[in-house]
Amino acid sequence: MSFSDDERNSVRIRNNIIYRLSTLRVNYTTYDMRREFDTINSKTHPFVMVLSPETGTGAHPFWYAAILGVFHADVQYSGNESRDFRFKRMDFLWVRWLSVLPGHPSG
Length: 107
Prior knowledge:
It contains 1 helix and 7 strands; from the N terminus they run H-E-E-E-E-E-E-E.
């Protein structure tokens, strides 16, 4: 996905500060409609997998990543579609994407 200069210039980080965290808590709903959470910690459990958006022939159902860092910042979006110009906390990960080996039995 690519973004235009105008789109990139519509994102502001309060005081240009990004905070490094040790963990990230991810809330989700289970298959039986219960609320659960997982904690991501780049030091103790640095590997994650996410559902792949790829649907083509031979596409692997998951993407894998190693977490290099956990961060948050107060972010404001002022683009044309914005309805709320307040700063909001945004949590994000710095990851190294891993790949499936072609021809490997699990890939």
